[in-house]
Design a protein that fits this description.
InterPro entries: ATPase_NBD, ROK, ROK_cs, WH-like_DNA-bd_sf, WH_DNA-bd_sf. By secondary structure, the protein is an alpha/beta fold. The chain is about 40% helix and about 20% strand. A hairpin with a 3-residue loop joins strand 12 (about 215-220) and strand 13 (about 225-230).
């Protein structure tokens, strides 16, 4: 494994420089005046922040003939050189690790999937190290250093400590994953909750660009939610902000693994849907794919289960809209494979439960493959690299 001596430091460490860089990263190319306006900084502060970034090659400046004033030279556009650095992102599921090699603009250059031979931390780290080594070898072909590693894991994750407090799918408790991965893989490592990591990618590079307040709701094996409030990804005091999967929407509903009843996740997550379809129809569907197929064939019981799931998701989203008033809620996750089965119920339940102007929230879907979750992990590594304050 390579040592961390290969990793270089980002050339600036001031809040203004980080702000300008992230502004250009998300919105660029921009003229300096436009970057100053978007970042809320003076042109002089922008010039001071941009200079070392240009000298180090992280920013490039090009003439923009379309922005030529009436007299004088054309204005210059500042943009991020995406090829200046590479990052690795890993998404750990219960049975495989998805890895990507991404550039500084979080564009995926290489993607790989490897199965897990077990869920114990040691086994997972061994597989992760092999995958990281494979991606580092791929990086050699680009002639650019890998500057960081991001790992996304479901569950209660303390990013500041780099610790997985509890991951139900992996059955982990208090695993110091960032420390272990740094020692094993030889790269500075950022560990975050998988939904929050995906939210970072959406905030900087996806459907959340330019929005100061939005939410990302993921539907699938679990029900997750990432929150951006006033431009900051919110983790909360204990790292569990946004757990709408454990908002109770039916007090008399089925038991949830969290110990409560009628949580959104207990009604609308894939395992809950499979269990309910078996119970309602008497058909032993093997997995969520068979449950979807049964519903698509018109089975009334299976379709009723999906209708109920859609209602629970819609009420959960309305809770987010009522509490935080986001401009947009993005629905994603592998559960969108069944979206046609419960889209109407999500929309109707949201409209019924959203209070007043909260109902104006833009709710739309964004199907994303698991490689995008790994890209989210890479985004957290980029974030850690360019700023000491991850928000």
């Amino acid at each position: 494994m390579p040592s961390t001596s290969r990793v270089e430091a980002f050339p600036v460490n001031t809040p203004a420089a980080s702000q300008i860089f992230t502004t250009v990263l998300s919105h660029g190319p921009l003229t300096r005046l436009e970057a100053a306006r978007r970042a809320g900084l003076s042109p002089a502060a922008v010039t001071k922040a941009v200079r070392p970034l240009l000298e180090a090659g992280y920013l490039l400046e090009d003439a923009n003939d379309e922005a030529r004033p009436a007299l004088g030279r054309p204005a210059n556009l500042v943009r991020v050189d995406g090829g200046r650095a590479l990052f690795i992102g890993l998404k750990v599921t219960g049975d495989e690790i998805i890895g990507v090699l991404a550039d500084l603009c979080c564009r995926i250059r290489v993607a790989r999937r490897v199965p897990l031979r077990g869920r114990e931390p040691g086994r997972v780290l061994a597989v992760a190290a092999e995958l990281v080594q494979e991606l580092l070898t791929e990086a050699d072909g680009f002639g650019v250093r890998v500057q960081g590693l991001g790992i996304a894991v479901s569950g209660d994750v303390d990013r500041a400590e780099g610790t997985v407090r509890y991951s139900p799918f992996l059955e982990w408790r208090d695993v110091p994953l960032a420390e272990l991965a740094t020692m094993t893989c030889g790269l500075p490592t950022t560990v975050d909750n998988d939904v929050r990591a995906l939210t970072v990618a959406e905030q900087w590079f996806g459907d959340g660009v330019g929005l100061s307040d939005f939410a990302l709701v993921t539907v699938g094996a679990g029900i997750g939610c990432g929150l951006v409030v006033h431009g900051r990804v919110v983790a909360g005091a204990h790292g569990v902000a946004g757990e709408i999967g454990h908002v109770t929407v039916d007090p008399a509903g089925p038991p949830c693994h969290c110990g409560n009843r009628g949580c959104v996740e207990a009604i609308a997550a894939d395992p809950a849907i499979v269990a309910q379809v078996r119970e309602v129809t008497g058909i032993e569907v093997a997995d969520i794919a068979e449950a979807i197929e049964l519903a698509h064939r018109g089975d009334a019981g299976a379709r009723a289960v999906y209708a109920k799931a859609g209602e629970a998701i819609g009420r959960g989203i309305a809770t987010v809209a009522n509490l935080l008033g986001p401009a947009r809620v993005i629905i994603s996750g592998e559960g969108l494979a069944a979206y046609d089965l419960f889209a109407e119920q999500i929309r109707d339940a949201f409209t019924a439960a959203a209070f007043g102007s909260a109902a104006r929230c833009d709710v739309h879907t964004r199907p994303l493959p698991f490689e995008e979750w790994a890209r989210g992990a890479a985004a957290t590594a980029i974030q850690s690299f360019i700023t000491a304050d991850p928000n």
